[in-house]
Design a protein that fits this description.
The protein is of the alpha/beta class and 398 residues long. The chain has two domains: 132 residues, abc type-2 transporter like fold (3-Layer(aba) Sandwich), CATH 3.40.1710.10; 200 residues, no CATH class. Helices cover 66% and strands 9% of the residues. It is built from 14 helices and five strands. Strands 2-1-3-4-5 form a five-stranded mixed beta sheet, with helices on both faces. The termini are far apart.
Amino acid sequence: MNMRTRTQRGHQRNSLTRALTIVWGELLHLRRTRIGIAFLLILPTVTIVLMSYSIGDVTNIPIAVSNQDYGPAADTFISTLRGASAQNTSNTKPLFNIVIQGNITDEDARNLVRDRVVRMSVVIPAGFSKNVANNTKSSVKVYMDATDQSIYLAMDAGISAVMAKASEKIAGQEYGGKTEIVIFDLNEQKVFGENLRSVDQMAPIFMSFFMSYICMSSCSLIIVRERVEGTIERLLLTPTRASEVIAGKLLYGVLVAVLETSILLILGVGIFKIRVVGNIFLVFSLLVLIGLGGVGLGLVSSAVSKNELEALLWQAAYIVPALLLSGLMYPIEAMAPTVQMLSYIVPMTHAISALKLVMISGLGASSIVVQIFALSIFAIITLTAGVALFGREMVGGT
C-alpha cells in the first residue's frame, strides 16, 4: 500500500515537472517574440488609461432653445436649463449645451434635430409666462433624438429635473413657494427612434464590430498559418505568380465581406425583424465597406506577424481602441474632450454612426457623406498597405 502511494506521488511529481517544463518553454518562446512582450505590457496600460477617460457622465449635449415668450417665467426656465448638471451629483459639468437660442418656429426647431444639428430642441410657446401667472396650464414642447438610448435617457431625466426645479423657482417668484399651483408640463416628441426595441438600437453597433472583426481575423490568421506551414512557399514553386496569390487573397477577403453581410441581413432583417428604416441596399454597401477595411487590417497584420500570436496581438491593438473610443460600449458624449477628439480617428466610430443614421434614423447617403468618406479612405489605405506589405514579404521569402 505504501509502495503504491509512493509510486502515485512520484507520477504526480513527474507530471508537474513536465507541465512546468512546458510552461518554461512557452516563456522562452515568448521571450524571443519581442513584439508579443511589448503588446502584453502596453495593451493593459492603454486599456486602463482609455477606460479612465472614456467612461463618465453624459454631458454637454447640444440643444436648441426656442423662446417664443420672452417673459419672466420663460427666462427662469432657460436659466434652469442652462444650469442643469449631469445626474452624478459630484459632476459639475453642464448636462446641456445651448448652441442655438432665439425665437425659432416649431418646425425649424424640429428640423434642427432632424438635420443632426442638435440632439434636442426645447420650445417655450408664446404666452407661457402669462399662462403661468394666470394659473393656466401651458406646455413646453421638446423634440428629441432617441437613436442612442444612453443619451436619450440622460436628456429625458435631465429635462424632467429641469421642469421640477423651474417649477419650484417660478412658484417662489409668482406664488410665494406654492409649487403645487404652478401648471406646466412637457410635451416630448421623438424625431428619431420612435418605438425602437433594444435589439434595433444595438444592431448597428454589433454589426459594425462583427464585420470588422470577422473579416480581419479570417484573412489574417489564415495567411499567417499558411506562412508558418510553408503553404505559400510551396504554392510559389508552381506556375502561380506572387501577384496571383495576392489577388486571390484579396478576392477571398471581398467574398468573406459580401457573404457575412448577406448572412447578417438575411438573418437579422429577414428572420428576426431587426428594424431598418433607411435603404437596405445602403446598409448592405456600408457593411461591405466596413468589412473591406477589416480585410485590409487583416492583410497588414498578417504581413507584419511571424506567427499567430503576433497576429492576434496586432488585432487587439485595433480592437481595444475600437471598443473603448467608438461609442460601442459607452456614448462619445460621456468621454473627456480630448478622448472625444481621438474617437473620430477610430474608423469604428464612423461605421457605427453611419449604420445608426441609416438603420434607425432612416437618412440617406447624402447625410452620411463624412462617414462614407472616412470608411472609404480607411479601406483604401489598409488594403493598399496590406497588399504592398504582403507582396514584399512574398518576394523576400522567395
